[in-house]
Amino acid sequence: MCRHLAYLGPDVPLAELITSPKLGLYRQAWAPLHQKHGTVNADGFGVGWYAGDDPAPARYRRTGPLWADANFPDLARVIRSGAVLAAVRDATEAGADGEAAAAPFAAGPWLFSHNGAVRGWPASLSGPAAGLPPEALLTLAARSDSALVWALALHRLRAGAEPGRALAETVLEVAAAAPGSRLNLLLTDGTTVTATAWGDTLWYLAEPGRYTVVASEPYDDDPHWTEVPDRTLLAATRTDVLLTPLKEPTA
């Protein structure tokens, strides 16, 4: 369910990451090559990017499929950034939240995306949700599994957890409450990228010191794309990629 990518590197047009690659998110919206669940990502899309010294990212999100937005190709051609998170969405189930349900979700300097689905949603997450403060629940971006997973991760970030710990603990908590969930999470603050591979594909392409791309699947045929093993936490900068195994939660 869904495809997403994050990029850190020199400023490039959004088109270079999303619409121009022959196997990019634009094509993955209707013809992903490695997606294990679902076939068409047409329930919305979004892109977030950082500009200049402003720590807060900008976002562009829509409810329909990426290929149906006549405005996006022009925007992607002229907007440049050195830190980007983009996603195309295949909804876990039907809903009326519109653009609010499309990744990337945002808070402060953070952009977040969830590729996957929470099994047994929403009943399965009643336990984790009970641990959130009331204001976190009242300000959920959307009534979707991804929005609640984001709320759980954001709560940890605001409590001072490092990004890797925040994502790892969120994945293990949700996996314990809803076994069989697919929880590929992607988080950036414009200088780092943190991701989890949990139930779906994740790849990265890096030229140390220049750029790093983390994506659900390769967007071109570059032989240096590396697949991340399942049950893994990825932490990356422009110069480094670190992989750490994640353990299944114990009963």
From TrEMBL:
Enzyme class name: hydrolase
Official protein name in the record: Gamma-glutamyl-hercynylcysteine sulfoxide hydrolase
Gene source species: Streptomyces cremeus
Lineage, broadest ranks: Bacteria, Bacillati, Actinomycetota, Actinomycetes, Kitasatosporales
Catalytic activity entry: gamma-L-glutamyl-hercynylcysteine S-oxide + H2O = S-(hercyn-2-yl)-L-cysteine S-oxide + L-glutamate
Role played: Catalyzes the hydrolysis of the gamma-glutamyl amide bond of hercynyl-gamma-L-glutamyl-L-cysteine sulfoxide to produce hercynylcysteine sulfoxide, a step in the biosynthesis pathway of ergothioneine.
Domain Glutamine amidotransferase type-2 per the UniProt entry, residue ranges: 2-251
Pathway info: Amino-acid biosynthesis; ergothioneine biosynthesis
Keyword check for Cell membrane: no
Enzyme Commission number(s): 3.5.1.118
Superkingdom of this protein's organism: Bacteria
UniProt entry keywords in alphabetical sequence: Glutamine amidotransferase, Hydrolase
